[in-house]
Every structure is written in C-alpha cells, then in structure tokens.
Amino acid sequence: MIRVSLSAIRVAGFLLGCTVVVQSLLASDTGAATEVWYAPEDRPLERVVRLYDHATRYIFVAVYGLTSPVAVKALADAKKRGVDVRVITDRERMHDPKQQTAVAALRHAGVPVRVNRHDSLMHLKQVVVDDEVNTTGSMNQTTSGNQYNDERLDVIRDHAVTVKARDKFLAMWKDNERFQLWQEQ
Q1: Residue 67 in contact with residue 99, Cβ under 8 Å?
Q2: CATH number for domain 33-181, candidates 3.40.1190.20, 3.30.870.10, 3.90.480.10, 3.40.1080.10
Q3: In the beta sheet, which residues pair with residue 136?
Q4: Which tens digits make up the pLDDT trace of 42-78?
Q5: Within its chain, how far is the Cα of 110 from the centroid?
Q6: CA 102 – CA 117 distance, rounded (Å)
C-alpha cells in the first residue's frame, strides 16, 4: 500500500499548476510566429516583396526611405490587383532624387502617399498586411538597406499585434495636422 501525505498532494498540485502556467506562457510567446532577417546576408527586402505579392486586402507602409525599384513595383502591382495600398514617408527624404522617383511612380500607379508636416522625422519602418502580418526593424526599403547595410527586419504573424500596428498607421494617416498628402513638385 502506498501512503501519500496531504502535503505531498498539495506540493504535486502546486507543481502541476506551475507547469500549466509556464506552458501557457510559452505557448503565448511562441503562438506569434516571428521571423528575423538580417541584411545583407538574408536580403530582407525580398521577404517584404513576397508579403506584398500575397496581400489580398491592404498594405500599409510607413517607412523613412523608399527607393527600391523592386519594392515600388510590388506595391504598384498590388494596387493593380485591387489591394488598398497606402504609404507614409518622411518629407525630408523627398529631397533625394531616388525617393522622388519612387514616390512619383507610386502616385502614378494610384497609391496615395502622405508625408509628415511636423519638424521631427517620420522614422517608423513598418508594413502592415491584411490584419495578419506586420514588419518592423531598422531596414528602409532601399537597395542599400537590403544588400549593403547592417539591418534587421522582423516579420510578425500575430493578429493582435498586427491590428495594433494597423491602428497606429491609420491614426497617422488620418492626422491632418501632422501628415499631408504628397504632391509632386
């Protein structure tokens, strides 16, 4: 006959409860799939372009530098497929001829572009796609940011986090005091 004391049962129950809590915390941490890509070795802009290619509802881009022809083409192609594509960028970057060319091509494709009116930088680097995936990190959507610079891109596949990123983008988009529609000069 095995005799188990009441205190041993309580300890076992406590340990089991701790195990369940730890497993639940680990599940919530790993429930959101996050991919981390580094430039130049992982060529992270190619990952972003794949997200653009698979978007079905919307793509919201807030990025300081946007000069990559590959990114511009993927955004224009998404717009042609009927995806709601919007871009926010920094007005100071509009002095760069490559950025001017990229933004003009987007506007020509029907993509609305807003720039900051405030004196600080619009330095966010974020993409939000279809409420299911968003990106963040240091990488601008430039050839240098993909092939030469030391950069990081995190691709996060989590509905709640992505909705929060979407809401931030839309708040910026609607803020007419801090942002305005870009007009070609």
Answers
A1: yes
A2: 3.30.870.10
A3: 154
A4: 999 999 999 999 999 999 999 999 999 999 999 999 9
A5: 21
A6: 20
